[in-house]
Amino acid sequence: AGPYWANLVDQSAISLGVVCFALLEAVSIVWVYGVRRFKNDIRSMIGDKWVDHPTFWWWKLQWCFVTPTILVSIILVNCIDWTYPTYNGPYPIWALYIFWGIITISVAPIPVVMLYTAITSSGSFRERLDIMFSPQNSWGPILRSDRDHAWECHEQHGTTMGEKLYLHPLTNEEDQNIAKTVL
């Protein structure tokens, strides 16, 4: 029975669910969070020299168009060319329910969390959307010096990264302790 289960999980978990998740991730980073914000996040990590280099447009093109197009193409080809999973013959119908369950479980947390946030947030529908699609105040580097640098990068280039306020102000000693554990 082991090879049958391994094959069923292999055919479902590696195919459509992961590609759908990758597409949602690519779209959310570039089109919801914003390619300018993402670029400034990278700028704060590796510096202006690389991000302002003339060849950096290649990455923006990849993030915005090439990657989503390829992922949508993979999903379409999988849907058009889809066949029931088999292993030494067809699986029983209950195994197909497990097959689709595995795919659903890998992608379901995204809309479930969005729905939960929409229901539990207060305000108008527009305000709830803003909450769901805006970075949280705690988003960004944890060390104060890194956070200040990232904030300055975003501010200089016309984007935001959430609030500059520190939710839990740290002393320099605490910053150093965090740096030791992270690094």
UniProtKB/TrEMBL annotation:
Which InterPro entries does the record match to this protein?
Na/ntran_symport (IPR000175), SNS_sf (IPR037272)
Molecular function in Gene Ontology: glycine:sodium symporter activity
GO cellular component, as recorded:
plasma membrane
Regarding the membrane, this protein is recorded as: Multi-pass membrane protein
For the keyword ATP-binding, the answer is no
List locations, semicolon-separated. Answer: Membrane
- Where does the chain cross the membrane? 12-35, 56-77, 97-119
Q: Which UniProt keywords apply?
A: Membrane, Transmembrane, Transmembrane helix, Transport
Annotated protein name in UniProt: Putative sodium-and chloride-dependent glycine transporter 1 isoform X2
